[in-house]
Design brief:
By secondary structure, this protein is α+β, with helices and mostly antiparallel strands. The chain has one domain. It contains nine helices and seven strands. The chain is globular and about 50 Å long.
Length: 222
Amino acid sequence: MGSQPSATQAIDGLIERLNEEQQAIFEGLNSPAQIQAYLDRTPYSTEDTDRSPRSVIRDGVAHCLDGGLFAAAALRRLGYPPLLVDLLPEPGTDDDHILAVYRRQGCFGAVAKSNFAGIRGRAPVYRSLRELAMSYFEFYFSIDGHRSLRAYSVPLNLARLDSLNWLWDDAGAAEVEKRLYGLRAIQLLTPQVAAELTPVDRLTYEAGSLGVNWGGVYKPKH
């Protein structure tokens, strides 16, 4: 326990590795809404590369894991625990999706980077993680219109993984991804309900696909 860095020490370790311009960007994010706005301005990465928060600021691009790590780091600077939750699709139909979750006045919210407009952040108005996860259901669909969300993971506290240097080391970010895949999943739908789902409607599909970089969209295996 004594060798674990404090939250302040961990964030200071990131900040000291940023140049002055990068420090100003990171230290200017003083609310979850501002963190979300920064990720919304950041182009979506189509590369199969995991970036640490340091690399997100340096490279100016991010996919959902990169964005989740960055958001967790930025939320941690504001005093929130760095928690990630993984939204899980029906296998072979879609990508999973990473949320940096936080709790305010007893309710959960999220900050997230996504290629799809409807599955980004959420205001802190959800009484449970299940409520938060279900708020993504209608806009969580595959390229072929399949309603794909099926489960969410228990939260992963990244403070327990500070020894991986995930805040500034891309290898640490990649290791976090491996840890996420080992988390316990909590199912949202019964098999019977899932079997009766209809495809997403056209208007929802078009709204949720606004601004999508199609080069980074998951191609279903079915």
